[in-house]
Design a protein that fits this description.
The protein is about 35% helix and about 20% strand. By secondary structure, the protein is of the alpha/beta class.
């Protein structure tokens, strides 16, 4: 790590000095404007956001790297609305379930209920059965491993391989505390969306805490599935800043959101990182920038890119993804969130040390964050990835601001651009991520550590 850090700050100084906090604020203010109507994937507002990002990148000398020599990569989506669907269980009076469809025909699904814990191992023979699964993963696992194990997408693949015909997901007190039932209902208010080339293997019924207890007394269940399916498209925005080598460091953030007022700090930080790299006289490796669509709908834009990359996977050195950036106080501590799984950690630690930022443990491991944003799809195709996050760093004011944000503004109309936000803190995050990239320009290509889930 000492070798990595040698001269890092001096090499990166032109890039760091190019970052402008006021520009991040201005980008956020535009992208969160109600005129963009929340940037829902495939919407006119999302298309406006795409063109805004393209214009900003082009002005910095970034070149198009999407399909056919253009900026965009089209993502084919399917939306299944399940209004009128119901779940009934023998011997258990259930309330209203949230039901996610599979894009197939409307039909009735009946079967024996089989409780399979967290749905991780020893599933047994589930042919013709409805699997009952606890949400998440055991708290005994380390944070990043817990996040990976708790991914319901991975659980569905295992359940499908074991023969299950539907899944019922049980709520838990811990999950209810950090993700109230009203948020689940809000997340599925527009139905279930999936990529056209990755249809879910089965429908899923989510239950609230009360019904999660009641259904455990039942032996069989009947899911009356009513589906109305529509096909539509959205797009990823992809650009590249060429370097001496075609190998590329990938910076990403998602462009879509769910509702009016909801801001976007991630892409503006990526834009300032592009400004920083464009200020360097020489770049040993190339820099790829991606603004993903449909992250809020299930990481669909990044999953599509992982299956249909516009540059060969072998050229991708590492991915640094942005999400849940809250500019509410100075950056004193970084949480690795995935970097610890590979030697990418060495580059992160070297950059943080140069900037006087500590590395700390994840203060909210129950959020299972690593599997909940786009970096996971890079890891799944073998590209070391991380979503660095601002830790609390014994800063009580920042911790309180984060908890207030999660409780009262996250994915709600009250989440909007505010002049009181600490835009210098957002610039700090941009600078540390920039310096990680400067280290990666000449440093050893990251590799997975032995024992990593992706090794």
């Amino acid at each position: 790590m000492l070798l990595l850090a040698a001269g890092l700050l001096s090499r990166g100084q032109p890039a760091l000095e190019a970052v402008r906090p006021q520009a991040i604020s201005a980008h956020v203010r535009f992208l969160s404007d109600d005129l963009l109507e929340g940037r829902y994937s495939g919407s006119p507002g999302h298309a406006v956001a795409e063109r805004y990002v393209i214009a900003q990148l082009a002005a910095l000398g970034v070149q198009p790297a999407g399909e056919g020599g253009g900026w965009l990569q089209r993502v084919a989506l399917r939306q299944a609305k399940t209004d009128g669907s119901t779940l009934a269980a023998s011997g258990a009076e259930l309330g209203e379930a949230v039901i996610a469809g599979d894009g197939g025909a409307s039909r009735d699904i009946e079967g024996q209920l089989s409780f399979v814990g967290y749905g991780l191992d020893d599933l047994g023979d589930l042919r013709g059965k409805i699997a009952v699964v606890l949400a998440g993963a055991p708290a005994s696992l380390p944070p990043t491993e817990r996040a990976i194990a708790g991914s319901n997408e991975a659980k569905l693949r295992r359940l499908g391989a074991a023969g299950a015909i539907a899944e019922v997901v049980l709520d838990t007190p811990e999950l209810e505390e950090r993700r109230p039932w009203v948020m689940v209902k809000r997340n599925f208010r527009n139905g279930q969306t999936f990529a056209a080339d990755a249809v879910p293997p089965m429908p899923v019924a989510f239950l609230d805490l009360r019904d999660s207890e009641r259904i455990q007394k039942a032996k069989t269940a009947r899911l009356s599935l009513v589906q109305a399916v529509r096909a539509y498209e959205s797009a990823n925005v992809i650009g590249i800043l060429p370097g001496a080598s075609p190998e590329a460091i990938v910076y990403s953030a998602h462009l879509d959101h769910l509702g009016i007022c909801e801001p976007q700090v991630k892409d503006p930080i990526c834009l300032e990182i592009a400004r920083g790299f464009s200020a360097l006289a020489h770049r040993e490796r190339s820099i790829l920038f991606i603004a993903f669509t449909a992250e809020e709908l299930g990481l669909l834009g990044s999953a599509w890119f992982s299956r249909h990359p516009t540059i060969p996977r072998e050229r991708m050195v590492a991915n640094l993804n942005f999400d849940q950036v809250l500019p509410a106080g100075p950056v004193r501590e970084l949480v690795l969130r995935g970097a610890e799984l590979s030697s990418l950690e060495d580059h992160v630690r070297a950059a943080a040390a140069e900037l006087g930022i500590a590395i700390g443990p994840d203060p909210v491991p129950e959020q299972s964050f690593y599997a909940r944003s786009d970096q996971i799809n890079f890891a799944r195709i073998g590209v070391p990835s991380a979503c660095l996050w601002q830790g609390f760093g014994r800063d009580a004011a920042y911790e309180a601001a984060f908890k207030d944000f999660r409780a009262h503004r996250y994915h709600q109309p009250s989440d909007e651009w505010l002049p009181a936000y600490d835009w210098e803190a957002a610039a700090q995050m941009a600078r540390v991520e920039l310096l990680v990239g400067v280290s990666l320009l000449t440093g050893e290509r990251p590799s997975w550590k032995p024992g990593s889930p992706f090794h």
